[in-house]
C-alpha cells in the first residue's frame, strides 16, 4: 500500500546557543545529503535515541548499510543542550517526588541501567574522556525544609527498591559545591554526568567510521511504495525498507499522535570561564552535578576542562503546543537564572552568564513512550518523558532490536505500554499546562 507523509515542522525551534556546544571546537563542515541513495536502514534523528539505535543496528546487522539523517548539526538538538544527567533511578519529573510504584521503578531502573551500560561501552570504544562521560553519581540537593522532606521521601523509596544512597549534610554540601546554600543532599552513585554536546558529537563521530551520517538534512516527506520507504530531504533522498523514527516530539510533525504529545521547553544558562581567583573563592570540588530535590527546582553543574571552570544553572519550564520557542522566551528566563545563581554563589557576584539557551522535552500525559512499528517498516523510539539521556538511549536500543526481530524482555514491556492519552483541546491545553507549571515553580520556592 502506498503512503505519503508530509513533514510539517522542519525548523529545529531551539532558541539560543547551547554552552555545551559553544565551548567545543567547531566541528568539520556538515556532510549534507545531496544525492539519492539506497540503504538497508534509515534512522531519522541523531539524538540519544537515534544514535543508540544506529549503534545497536551496527552490532546486529554488521554487513548492512545504515544511514542517519538529522535536520540540524548533531549536538545542537535537545540531546546536546540538556543538563547532562544520565540517570539510572526513578526520576519522573511530572510528579511531586520523582517516584512511582516500587515494582515499576525497580523495573525501570533495570532498563535504564541496560541503557547506561550500553552508553558506557560506547564511551569506552570511542574513547570519551571523563569530562565527557563521568560515572560520578548525582546529588539531589536540598535548600529548604521542603526540599529535605523530598529527599527523605526519595531515600525511603530507594530503600524499598533495595538501592543505596548517601545522605550528605550541610558541611558535605559546602565541601563539594563551595556553596553555603544547601542544607543537605542525597548522593546516588550510579548516575553518569555527561558533557551533552561532546557526548553526542563524539558518539556520532565513532559511528561515522561505519555509518553515513548526514546533518543539516531534514526529512521533508516520507513515502512508502512497494514496501520500501523513501525519505526526501531538500537536496536528496534515502530509500530503505526499514526506518527508525527517533525524533522525539517531532513525531507530531510527521503526523503521528496529534494532540497526544506535550512539548515542554526547559532553559539553561552557563557562566563565562571563571578566573583562577574566582575558582579559589568558590572552593568545592572541580566538577559536580546537583539535581533539585524538588523536580521544579534548579539543576546546577560545575564543570572544568574544555572551556575552563564554569557553572550551569537550569530551571524554568514553558509549554508550547507548536514545538517552537523564541529568543523572547530566553529573555524571560534571565531573571530566574541569575537569581538562582546569585543565591547559591554570592562569592561570584561579578560572574555573568555567557550562554543562555532553551530546548525541548516531550512528555505524554500518562507518562508512556511511543514505541514500536507504527507503520509497516517504520519504527518509533519517541516521547522520552523528560529523561531522554537514559530513556532515549533505551528506546533507541530496543527499537533497533525490535526491528531486527531480536528478543529482549524489555521490548515486551515497551510494547505493552498504553497509548499516550489525549490532551484537552487548545487553548485549554496551553492554559492548563502553563498554570500548572507556574504553580509548581512557585511551590519549589528556594529549591529554584
Ligand atoms: C535544558 C534541558 C535540560 C535537560 N536535562 C536533562 C537531563 O539532565 N537528563 C535527561 O535525561 N534529559 C534531560 N533533558 C531532556 C533530554 O535532552 C531529551 O529528553 C532528549 O534529548 C531526547 O532525546 P531524543 O534522542 O529522543 O530526541 P532529540 O534529542 O530531540 O533528538 C531528535 C533529533 O531528531 C531531529 N529531527 C527532528 N525532525 C527531523 C526531521 N524532519 N528530519 C531529520 N531529523 C529530524 C532533531 O533535529 C533532533 O536532533 C533536558 C532537556 C533540556 C532542554
Describe the secondary structure blueprint for this structure.
Blueprint: E1 3-6, H1 19-22, E2 36-38, E3 41-44, H2 48-60, E4 66-69, E5 85-86, H3 102-125, E6 133-134, E7 138-142, H4 145-161, E8 166-168, H5 170-177, E9 184-188, E10 192-194, H6 196-207, E11 212-214, E12 221-225, E13 228-233, E14 236-240, E15 242-245, E16 262-271, H7 276-282, E17 288-292, E18 299-303, E19 310-319, H8 327-331, H9 334-344, E20 353-363, E21 370-375, E22 378-382, H10 388-404, H11 409-415, H12 428-444
Parallel strand pairs: 2-14, 3-4, 3-15, 4-11, 7-17, 15-22
Antiparallel strand pairs: 1-12, 5-10, 6-10, 7-9, 8-9, 12-13, 13-14, 16-19, 16-20, 17-18, 18-19, 21-22
Helix pairs in contact: 2-6, 2-10, 3-10
The structure holds flavin-adenine dinucleotide.
Amino acid at each position: 500500500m502506498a503512503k505519503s507523509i508530509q513533514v510539517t515542522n522542519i525548523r529545529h525551534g531551539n532558541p539560543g546557543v547551547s554552552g555545551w556546544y559553544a565551548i567545543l571546537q567547531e566541528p568539520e563542515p556538515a556532510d549534507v545529503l545531496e544525492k539519492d541513495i539506497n540503504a538497508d536502514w534509515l534512522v531519522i534523528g541523531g539524538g540519544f535515541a537515534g544514535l543508540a539505535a544506529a549503534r545497536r543496528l551496527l552490532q546486529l546487522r554488521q554487513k548492512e548499510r545504515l544511514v542517519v539523517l538529522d535536520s540540524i548539526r548533531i549536538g545542537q538538538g535537545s540531546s546536546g543542550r540538556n543538563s547532562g544527567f544520565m540517570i539510572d533511578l526513578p526520576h519522573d519529573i511530572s510528579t511531586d517526588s520523582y517516584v512511582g510504584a516500587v515494582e515499576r521503578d525497580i523495573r525501570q531502573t533495570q532498563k535504564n541501567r541496560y541503557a547506561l551500560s550500553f552508553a558506557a561501552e560506547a564511551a569506552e570504544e570511542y574513547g570519551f574522556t571523563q569530562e565527557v562521560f563521568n560515572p560520578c553519581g548525582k546529588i539531589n540537593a536540598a535548600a529548604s525544609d521542603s526540599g529535605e522532606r523530598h529527599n527523605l521521601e526519595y531515600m525511603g523509596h530507594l530503600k524499598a527498591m533495595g538501592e543505596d544512597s548517601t545522605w550528605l549534610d550541610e558541611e558535605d554540601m559546602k565541601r563539594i559545591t563551595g556553596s553555603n546554600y544547601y542544607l543537605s543532599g542525597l548522593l546516588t552513585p550510579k548516575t553518569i554526568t555527561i558533557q551533552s554536546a561532546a557526548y553526542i558529537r563524539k558518539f556520532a563521530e565513532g559511528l561515522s567510521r561505519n555509518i553515513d551520517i548526514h546533518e543539516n538534512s531534514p526529512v521533508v516527506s516520507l513515502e512508502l511504495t512497494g514496501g520500501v520507504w523513501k525519505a526526501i530531504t531538500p537536496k536528496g533522498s534515502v530509500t530503505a525498507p526499514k526506518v527508525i523514527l527517533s525524533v522525539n516530539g517531532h513525531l507530531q510533525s510527521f503526523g503521528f499522535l496529534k494532540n497526544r504529545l506535550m512539548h515542554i521547553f526547559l532553559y539553561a544558562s552557563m557562566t563565562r570561564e571563571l578566573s583562577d581567583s574566582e575558582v579559589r573563592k568558590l572552593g568545592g570540588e572541580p566538577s559536580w552535578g546537583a539535581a533539585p530535590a524538588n523536580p521544579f527546582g534548579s539543576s546546577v553543574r560545575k564543570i572544568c576542562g574544555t572551556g575552563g571552570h564554569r557553572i550551569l544553572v537550569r530551571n524554568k519550564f514553558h509549554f508550547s503546543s507548536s514545538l517552537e520557542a523564541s529568543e523572547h522566551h530566553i529573555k524571560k528566563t534571565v531573571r530566574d537564572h541569575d537569581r538562582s545563581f546569585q543565591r547559591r554563589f554570592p562569592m561570584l557576584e561579578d560572574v555573568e552568564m555567557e550562554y543562555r539557551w532553551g530546548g525541548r522535552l516531550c512528555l505524554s500525559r500518562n507518562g508512556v513512550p511511543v514505541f514500536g512499528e507504527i507503520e509497516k517498516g517504520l519504527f518509533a523510539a519517541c516521547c522520552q518523558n523528560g529523561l531522554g539521556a537514559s530513556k532515549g538511549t533505551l528506546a533507541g536500543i530496543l527499537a533497533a532490536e525490535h526491528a531486527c526481530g531480536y528478543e529482549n524482555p524489555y521490548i515486551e514491556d515497551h510494547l505493552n505500554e498504553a497509548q499516550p492519552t489525549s490532551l484537552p483541546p487548545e487553548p485549554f491545553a496551553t492554559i492548563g499546562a502553563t498554570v500548572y507549571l507556574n504553580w509548581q515553580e512557585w511551590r519549589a520556592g528556594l529549591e529554584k
